[in-house]
## 1
Amino acid sequence: MLKVISFKICPFFQYVAAMLEAKKVPYQVEYADFNNCLFDVSPNGKAPILITESGAVLFDADAIVAYISRTYPGMESVSSDEELALSQAWALYGSKNYVPQCSAMRSDTEQDFESAFGVFAKSLNKVESVLGQTKYFLGNELSSVDIAWLPLLHRAALVEKYTGVDLFDRWPKIKAWQSQIMTLDIVEKSVSEDFEAVFSNFYLSPKTYLGSKR
């Protein structure tokens, strides 16, 4: 069985886990901590890593998801190389925004938050401009793009739940997309049972700007 090792609130972990859940691939999870920080296992010392059934250690979330997509059936089918390239590009665009969103949520002051969120907002503007009226990013079927953006949409939903701050209030299409994604059971299945508490304690503590809104 596949094994994923990561930190509980790592969005890159949720990306990998959500893809496994969407494809219904059995896997085990080992949660790391600062005493088990992956430096002796992962070449780049970062989470997550995936250990395959043959014992190979895969690292980098985008590479891991690409492996899962190639190895296990399910999810979207594309009719051309162009569609495949676009799907991969928009998925990569999503995972590249994990750090900007995390930086904004972790900001200590309103000024720091506005500066960090401004970086994320540029990407939201681009996504808003291409989203249509379908249920998901590429149409009415769940795709790898939706899976890549799921951690971003999920975290924004938790920010709103606990603070009342709607990170997507200027982007109605993204808001509708978020609402659709949040109905999926893979959202909860792709995180630990205590994820909300761990997330809230880290990103929405009284020390953060968003936490001061609680």
## 2
Amino acid sequence: MSTRQQLAAQNREELLAAAIDVFRMHGINAPLQMIIDQAQVGRATFYRNFADRRELVLALMQQALDGLEMRAQNHAQYPDGFIQLIEDHIYHIPYLTALMEYWRVIERDDPVMVSIYQRRDAILQPLIDTAIAHGTCRADFQPSDYAMVTSILRSALQGYTYAEQEKLAKRAIELLLNGIRA
């Protein structure tokens, strides 16, 4: 990879990281200029990487799926790997925060979103099947139920600092996995 290609890849990563931070703090409709400023790149650099907000959000979603896939592969060897994957979300709150309002930018039935959901389901299904086979997950759990799990974890976003959000996420997972019954 040439130096120019390395710089272009670095700029893209800087823009994605800045978008996570800006969307986390200001919501998904924050001005794109805030992302450009935080990434410390020029406006032209942004538009060389992303045609618009929609493309940026889709890139973030693909990046989040790549991370989910990597974590799923790491947990796949364990009978309770699916549960471990859910617990692992505590440490990935910024993505949940940044992307929780993606629907304001992209419709759920958009073909690209349908593809994203299909990929998510393909990543999760083997873990769910293993968890069901080992009795660590209820037998009727479907990959589509995963959206409810992440919605519950979004309650952690009420915290103002990352530490507060992490604490709330831990509590949400505890309640989710252990229930509220005495």
